[in-house]
Amino acid sequence: MRLYNWDPTKLELKKVKKKTIFMTLTVIVSIMSIIGFILYKQGLKKGKIEKITENDVVLLCIDSENNSFSRKNFYEYLKKINIKFPEIVFAQAIKESGFKSKIWRENHNPFGMKEASKRPNKQNGSQNGHAYFDTWKDACIDYAFYQSYAGLSKVKTKNDYLHCLKEMNYFDTEHPANETYLSDVKNIAENIEQYLD
Q1: What pLDDT, in 10s, does the model give residues 12-65?
Q2: Tens digits of per-residue pLDDT, 116-125?
Q3: Taking phi first (over 0 means left), then psi (-120 to 50 degrees means alpha), and beta for anything else, what does residue 59 get?
């Protein structure tokens, strides 16, 4: 099993070295031992061991509260998690699902992403032939993983990004409905204010 660490500044997943994991676990175990000993000593002085409350524990998590959806919230969240070219990614969601399709409604999947087999992801599996997520925010984070895994986070210009999508077969270029996919995405991205709620 490989562990990855998300670097939001570079929009990349980086492998966590075994040495780093070992050192981190050693430090955590040491700190927990010291805290446990201190709590034990305090409990002996008071005649009992106090329960650890939520104030004693700090949890690091990705923003999962307030999952209320609007197109503006969606676009702002793409920017918040440092998605590369968020206006293009927003335009892809408009083109792929329009925030109306069955895949969007039932799978919380605005991008029409298929289930990932190799890359790190936030998916819960496959449903209706596409990946499904707990929330639309999980789908956005998953797209960030996709960008990093596919090397899209290193693309320098919007035109190069669009070209990469075509080269990587992100959309079915043979399907008649997709003849204008790239020009539609580019147009939506350039006029994004018209598409926000």
Answers
A1: 777 766 666 666 777 787 788 777 767 655 554 444 434 434 443 333 344 445
A2: 988 999 999 9
A3: beta
What gap in Å lies between CA 197 and CA 24, rounded to an integer? 44
Single out the residue of 115, 85, 114, 61 nearest to residue 190, CA to CA. Answer: 85
Q: State the Cα–Cα distance between residues 80 and 93, nearest whole angstrom.
A: 17
Rounded to 5°, angle at Cα 169 from 69 and 116? 60
Q: What is the number of domains present in the chain?
A: 2
Residue 102 lies in a domain: yes
What tokens does 100 get? 């109306």
pTM of the model: 0.66
- Both 161 and 93 in a single domain? yes
Q: Tell me the β-bridge partners of 15.
A: 4
